[in-house]
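Dear colleagues,

For the upcoming journal club I promised to circulate an example of a predicted protein-ligand complex. I picked one with adenosine-5'-triphosphate because it came up in last month's discussion. The inputs are reproduced below in full, followed by the predicted structure.
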Amino acid sequence: MTEDAKPEREAGQDFIRDIVKADIDAGRHKTVVTRFPPEPNGYLHLGHAKSICLNFGIAQEFGGRCHLRFDDTNPTKEEQEYIDAIERDVRWLGFDWGKHLYHASDYFEQLYDWAVGLIRAGKAYVDDQSPDDMRVARGTLTEPGRNSPFRDRSVDENIDLFKRMRAGEFPNGARVLRAKIDMASGNINLRDPVLYRILHASHPRTGTAWYIYPSYDYAHGQSDAIEGVTHSVCTLEFADHRPLYDWCLDNIPVPSRPRQYEFARLNVTHTILSKRVLTELVRGGHVAGWDDPRMPTMAGLRRRGVPPAALRDFVKRVGVAKAYSIVDAGLLDFSVREVLNKSAQRRMAVLKPLKVVIENYPEGQSEELDAINHPEDASLGSRKVPFGRELYIEADDFMESPPKKFFRLSPGKEVRLRYAYFITCKEVVKDASGAITELRCTYDPATKGGNAPDGRKVQATIHWVSVAHAVKAEVRLYDQLFAKADPDAANFAADLNPASLEVLSDARLEPAIAADNSDAAVQFERLGYFCRDPESTPAKLIINRTTGLRDTYAKAAAPVAGGGKPGGGKK
Ligand code: ATP
Ligand code: MG
């Protein structure tokens, strides 16, 4: 099921912002405080980008602040590499937490004290049941749970056991601390949820100071309260946890009273936004790493040349809603084109080269021709492009026996070389196997700059590079990582697209592309947007295709973006 991702309201408006605004207007809060709370167990993906834009965006719009808080309560899965990557990605997306960088682990001591308080109040107990027995006793959606035989332990015994859990006296899984709420509750989250579990594991920040770690449900709301978070925004899966979030806040002497609000998580076709699956893609070698340009991670998108403004634009178009939906992956490409069409400099490159010899151009001669860097933005200036007797054109721009509608180069036909001259194809040279090895052409020196003084027209303008000056590169073309629009997260390997990467090893670029050291994407005229891969070396230039020029997002209501004329437009 794919749904049009049209924003339902005016840009920047959604039900969460309505709630925030109403709270401010009614004087319930002076300052809005939100947080983005990633667990550092993987790299951030498109879904997180949505959450970041929402939380930081609300703080910006309402003059409040947004905290970056690492939800670091499970040391067995969390790593410093992920912490660093998350900070880098949030900054790259354009947001700043200032001095408000926090960790759930900053609060471990306070959380422990509050847990002891719950025990003293008879609202928490140490349970010795095995994990399996606990699962069975929890009941089902249709059956109530059963009380644990350890539920009515004395306060003193509970405190003694909890202290010894902390001291590391018991092995993993031997005991847990549970809230004493209601084993018959219709909401399974309230059937005496686990607050603490034993884990003998070293933590990236607290080292081996702790042998017990709080559950997400216990740590999250209290962390929000400690930081003075006013609006704790999360995805819909947590709606059923809200009564527990509130129970904790109601039963613990917290310094402030945050509220939880839920919105629908982002889903995008041809991808799986789950850190578990993304981790398996990396570990299983299905991709080259977390920043593989086919990955829906921010690191992958960045490496593919997607500018952060395009991601923010995409998130804005998707909007914030309570209803589940799947967004067409083409909408992201649409945003990328919108942004890059305006900002990306134009260059010429030939992906599949075919040699052209201009027979009437003097041997050993070359010249520099003026090429503009952007057709709509004169402030980006122009550059010189070298021209000579031998050129490469795109193999696809020539046909020996063209059909009627083919307007580009063919025997006897005249076309314009962009920024250069009119050329006419005189002869096709082939090797012994019959493959075309070069074209012999002539040029008209009077057409310099691309116009004929006698007013004659050509039907196509094609791009080219000079053989003597071109720089060789490997160009990587990316397609969807998953062939299926709705890949199966449980068996994702079967849905992978075997053709998600195409490597062109013999591309030729105009020298200005190789001379440019920036990672920013440029438009290769008539081909798409491309950027330098960070793994390029002086000996081997690697170029990634960010996206093509053509709009494949059929359902987009907005006009087609793109400043080029794919496939050789008429002039
Ligand atoms: P995953 O499901 O990929 O493992 P997660 O929810 O476990 O993600 P967290 O690190 O806990 O990852 O997420 C940090 C924040 O990002 C949470 O507030 C979460 O709700 C939000 N978030 C995660 N995935 C999405 C998504 N697909 N759309 C919107 N928000 C998301
Ligand atoms: Mg999570």
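Two points we might discuss: Residues 15-263 form a domain with the Rossmann fold fold (CATH 3.40.50.620). The mean pLDDT is 93.

See you all on Thursday,
B. R.
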